[in-house]
Write a structure and sequence with these properties.
This protein is an alpha/beta fold. 38% of the residues lie in helices and 19% in strands. It has a 7-stranded parallel sheet with strand order 7-18-12-11-10-8-9, with helices on both faces.
Length: 651
């Protein structure tokens, strides 16, 4: 009976092997297992590590050590030769042993290279076990270490080696640098913590179940690995939920995160919308609000979540001015409530807002994103928006303003009005969008004064950047942008100004116009414009055309300069002028734009270089003021290289 079952198993496995072979040939792929010796022919290695007998995931077995005597196996390790061949006979005997009381006792010998396994001894043993769907097998593993280099795949692999050395986990595969460190931090461990046997068993059991359900929910559509999916999961749920939830509950939660999986898997990109839809400007769109039916009632219930006290934060006050504008502008069509989460209990504040009936939540700072993600998954009937430049997650729309356009105008004014060839620029944080502001300003300076140099300083570093620039003889300085169009920003802390014997004189003040932003966001909800966020992350990054940014000009500007500034403003708003649609060279001499076309929104928002007329440093994370580090961890241009903060212990 056992022999008959083994013969039948061979025929089933052979059928799978031949199918794989035919499909691979038709698709132009190599139909046999990869050969490690051929891969290593042109590769520099630095040594081997004998890891002994350990359990390895079978989905990472991709090839053999050498070419062998012939193509007996397809690339999926299923047999190709006939059953009456020597190979077939030995395969059947091994299958009989597997079905017997003792099983296959000898562990195969495999080589591991870049996280993949290549069998040297035991190809048929591996084939038999794979034919029965084994997810993992014991194997004697020898690791071949590649020479360390600047190649991102090599660097990611060394991160894996460090992770495996500490955790003993082989099946957790990541595709990007920094993801292993983020996983360790999300599990609540220090970066160099050596996992205990209990932690290893606890994690392995949970991850095995998670991987199994993820495969069913995802079906390979997202391109994400189970390890990346777990990292997404831990941003919303707890590791313990994997064991306590039913399989159906896990499936449902994973399906809600599908858009996030596609994002980390590289199957989709965030949809960056650079202007509000023209339809939102129409009277017809405005007239829809009193008859709002998207949520099943006439009155829209809106919640504003604040992270800082109104009396202490100009940022929060600017959003509250907009909140007041909405109430005055839309009257009884909306009902607005405010929730102050100055105690950093963001999730609790949002839960209370949902309990109070809020259908539209505005989370006004980037630090609230984790709470937004959880609320979006748990309360899919609500629309969740987070005020941040680009933190793309499913179910959460991010909104921000392209302030770099008006910084370009301010730069042109600064270049023309400076008495010398040194102009100061004080940036706040090295985060997404800020380098675009610096460079747009520098390009504006170059427009009116090609000789001028922009001296870059940072307010997130210790010291007084204004005083430092004044000591260096700089007479024109660009400082913070106004958080509102209200005239309450008359000091050396705000706008672009000149400083002389008679004090300071305002030249231009770039402004955020949150009233216009929130009005258009409300209308977008009415029209269902952002429903696509459930399947593809949406980042709203609007500018002058949408009216969400503005610039106020100093009263003492010469008529000619004022006229030029107005021409630039009109051209930018109408799309006829683009600061980055020109030949641009960075200060290292690298050509960043050849002038034939503008930089894309993705290139602009993720810009991490400086124009050739900018002098100054890029701050190191360790040098930042303590209160600046949280935002830089969240939105920093180089955040992927930072050691993530440890979360609450989960194992």
């Amino acid at each position: 009976m056992m022999g008959s079952e083994a013969y039948e198993q061979y025929r089933t496995a052979q059928k799978a092997g031949k199918k794989y072979y035919r499909e691979a040939v038709a698709a132009g792929r190599y139909p046999y297992p990869a050969v490690l010796d051929e891969i290593l022919e042109h590769t520099n290695t630095v040594g081997k590590m004998d890891l002994g007998v350990i359990t390895i995931p079978t989905d990472l077995i991709v090839g053999t050590r050498s070419a062998g005597r012939g193509p007996a196996l397809a690339g999926n390790f299923m047999p190709l030769l006939e059953i009456d061949s020597e190979f077939g006979s030995k395969w059947v005997r091994l299958c009989e042993a597997h079905l017997g009381p003792e099983g296959i006792r000898d562990a195969p010998k495999v080589y591991e290279y870049l996280g993949r396994f290549y069998v040297e001894e035991g190809n048929k043993r591996v084939s038999v076990l794979l034919s029965y769907g084994a997810r993992s097998i014991p194997a004697h593993v020898i690791r071949i270490l590649p020479e360390y280099s600047e190649d991102r795949d090599i660097q990611r692999y060394y991160e894996f080696v460090h992770f495996h050395t500490l955790s003993g986990q082989y099946g957790v595969q990541m595709q990007h640098r920094g993801e292993y460190a983020r996983l360790v931090a999300a599990l609540g461990m220090e970066p160099d913590h050596i996992w205990t046997m209990e932690e290893r068993r606890h994690f392995a059991a949970g991850f095995s179940r998670f991987s199994d359900v993820f495969r069913e929910a995802d079906r390979g559509i997202s391109g994400a690995t189970a390890g990346q999916a777990l990292l997404v999961w831990l941003g919303v749920f707890r590791f313990a939920d994997i064991k306590t939830d039913s399989r159906q509950e896990l499936l449902e939660k994973l399906r809600r995160l599908q858009a996030d999986f596609r994002l980390v898997g590289g199957m989709v990109n965030a949809d960056i919308q650079t202007e509000a839809d023209d339809a939102l400007e129409s009277e017809k769109s405005r007239s829809l609000l009193p008859h709002f039916g998207l949520f099943g009632r006439k009155q829209v219930r809106v919640a504003f979540i604040y992270a800082y006290d109104l009396a202490e934060s100009a940022w929060t006050r600017s959003h509250d001015y907009a909140r007041q504008y909405l109430e005055e502008h839309f009257g009884g069509s909306i009902q607005v409530a405010v929730y102050n989460a100055a105690d950093r209990q963001y999730y609790r504040a949002m839960e209370q807002a949902i309990e109070d009936g809020a259908e539209l939540l505005f989370a006004t700072t980037p630090s609230m994103m984790d709470a937004c993600r959880r609320i979006a998954v748990e309360h899919r009937q609500a629309k969740i928006l987070n005020c941040s430049p680009s933190l793309p997650y499913a179910g959460v729309v991010t909104y921000y303003s392209r302030i770099y356009e008006v910084k370009f105008i301010a730069g042109a004014i600064a270049g023309a009005m400076s008495q010398g060839d040194s102009i100061g620029f004080i940036a706040n944080y090295p985060i997404m969008g800020v380098y675009a502001n610096i460079n747009a300003f520098a390009l504006g300076v170059k427009l009116t004064n090609p000789r001028a140099r922009v001296k870059l300083r940072w307010s997130c570093l210790p010291g007084d950047p204004v005083a430092e620039l004044l000591r260096e003889g700089v007479t024109v300085i660009s400082n913070r942008d106004a958080t509102t169009t209200k005239n309450e920003h008359q000091s050396l802390e705000w706008g672009t100004y000149s400083v002389g014997p008679n004090g300071f004189e305002t030249l231009a003040v770039p402004c955020w116009n949150w009233e216009q932003m929130y009005e258009k966001l409300i209308l977008g909800m009415v029209n269902g414009a952002w429903n696509m966020a459930e399947v593809r992350p949406v980042n709203l990054w609007w500018g002058l055309k949408s009216g969400v940014t503005d610039i106020q000009f100093g009263h003492q500007l010469p008529d000619g300069m004022l006229n030029l500034a107005k021409i630039l403003k009109t051209g930018l708003a109408e799309g006829r002028i683009d600061p980055f649609d020109q030949r641009i060279v960075d200060r290292d001499g690298v050509l960043r734009c050849d002038g034939s076309t503008s930089l894309s929104p993705e290139e602009i928002i993720n810009m991490n270089w400086l124009c050739d007329n900018v002098d100054g440093i890029t701050p190191e994370f360790e040098d930042l003021l303590p209160e600046s580090k949280e935002l830089v961890r969240l939105l920093g241009i180089d955040r992927g290289q930072l050691q993530p903060e440890r979360e609450e212990k989960q194992l």
